[in-house]
């Protein structure tokens, strides 16, 4: 039975998982969930699809799993992946996992929060975020991006050193997100910019495919509507 991936391309981890599965040639049925329409908020969705009412998640036959990092590990084990994207070697895998664990309270938290406060919540509520509060969110994000550039990318061209991995995919998808709110994460960060360009190239054409929606929003300089 074919794996089903439920996702929305406006979701950062959705994009990361989509790219990861495509690159590793893992067959799956693409099931898009229109978050903007609120279909995930119904009791039916919670009962029949995902108890957490979020994306991404998978159905693999009768088995259901949420949380993008857990899905990466499950799929990698089931399909016996052993490559740079998610290696079996203990220390190499641990280095990938180190970033995947770190990102939750850092790259993902700060980039997503800025995106939500600057663009998404004002669109949904019709009320802009207080400028002083928004500046704090931007400062937190700036600090996080500085850490990515000066620590995670200090010892090689990729997050874990000399080889690209799924850690780079997740990092890039999160760092792309503020572009929809009119913020360029690479401005004044040459190391980060060069790394992001490498990731885009290495993950082509799936990277561009997954970022089609976000690129359209970004082209409008933070003034796009849902």
Automatic annotation (TrEMBL):
An example Gene Ontology biological process: glutathione metabolic process
Domain GST C-terminal per the UniProt entry, residue ranges: 89-219
Domain GST N-terminal: 1-83
Cross-referenced CDD domains: GST_C_Theta, GST_N_Theta
Reaction catalysis annotation: RX + glutathione = an S-substituted glutathione + a halide anion + H(+)
Domain of life of the native organism: Eukaryota
UniProt keywords, alphabetically: Cytoplasm, Transferase
SUPFAM superfamilies assigned to the protein according to its UniProt record, in alphabetical order: GST C-terminal domain-like, Thioredoxin-like
Main location: cytoplasm
An example Gene Ontology molecular-function term: glutathione transferase activity
Localization per Swiss-Prot or TrEMBL: Cytoplasm
GO CC annotations, alphabetized: cytoplasm
InterPro entries in the cross-refs: Glutathione-S-Trfase_C-like (IPR010987), Glutathione-S-Trfase_C_sf (IPR036282), Glutathione_S-Trfase (IPR040079), Glutathione_S-Trfase_N (IPR004045), GST_C (IPR004046), GST_C_Theta (IPR040077), GST_N_Theta (IPR040075), GST_Theta (IPR051369)
EC number(s) stated in the UniProt entry for this protein: 2.5.1.18
Enzyme class label: transferase
Keyword match Cytoplasm: yes
Subunit note: Homodimer.
Family named by the database record: Belongs to the GST superfamily. Theta family.
PANTHER family on file: GH16740P-RELATED, PTHR43917
Protein name: glutathione transferase
Organism field: Zophobas morio
């Amino acid at each position: 039975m074919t794996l089903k991936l439920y996702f929305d391309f406006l979701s950062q981890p959705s994009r990361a998982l989509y790219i990861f599965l495509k690159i590793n040639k893992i067959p799956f049925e693409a099931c898009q969930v229109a978050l903007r329409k609120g279909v995930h908020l119904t009791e039916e969705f919670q009962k029949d699809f995902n108890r957490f009412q979020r994306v991404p998640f998978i159905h693999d036959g009768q088995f259901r799993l949420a949380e993008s990092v857990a899905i990466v590990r499950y799929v990698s084990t089931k399909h016996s992946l052993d490559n740079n994207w998610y290696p079996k070697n203990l220390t190499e895998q641990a280095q990938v996992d180190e970033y995947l664990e770190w990102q939750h309270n850092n790259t993902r938290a700060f980039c997503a929060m800025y995106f939500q406060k600057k663009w998404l919540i004002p669109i949904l509520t019709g009320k802009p975020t207080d400028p002083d509060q928004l500046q704090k969110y931007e400062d937190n994000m700036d600090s996080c991006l500085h850490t990515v550039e000066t620590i995670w990318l200090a010892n090689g061209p990729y997050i874990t050193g000399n080889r690209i991995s799924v850690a780079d995919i997740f990092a890039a998808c999160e760092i792309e997100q503020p572009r929809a709110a009119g913020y360029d994460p690479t401005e004044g960060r040459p190391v980060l910019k060069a790394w992001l360009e490498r990731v885009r190239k290495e993950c082509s054409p799936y990277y561009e495919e997954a970022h089609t929606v976000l690129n359209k929003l970004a082209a409008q300089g933070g003034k796009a509507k849902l």
